[in-house]
Amino acid sequence: MPKCDNPLEYSSCLNAYKKPPPSASCCQKMKEQAPCYCKYMKIEDVKRVFDRVEIAKMAKLCGVSYSSTC
Q1: Domain residue spans of the chain
Q2: Terminus of the chain with fewer CB atoms < 10 Å: N or C?
Q3: Global pTM?
Q4: From the CB of residue 39, how many other CB atoms can be counted at a distance below 10 Å?
Q5: For the Bifunctional inhibitor/plant lipid transfer protein/seed storage helical domain, which residue ranges apply (predicted)?
C-alpha cells in the first residue's frame, strides 16, 4: 500500500494523456498510487494541479482501476 503522502510527485504524468501513449514509468506510478486517488481529491492544493477527468483518462490509458465515486 502506498503512503499517499506526496501526490505531486507524479503530477507530470497526468498530462501524458494529452499525447498518448503514456510512458511505462507513468503507468507504473498510476498503478502504485491508485488507492490514493480519493484521498488526493480532497486536498485543495492537489485539486488545482489535476482533477478527476485527468485521473480517469490516465487510468484508462494505463489499465488502472480505481473508484471514481470518491
Answers
A1: 24-70
A2: N
A3: 0.71
A4: 14
A5: 8-70
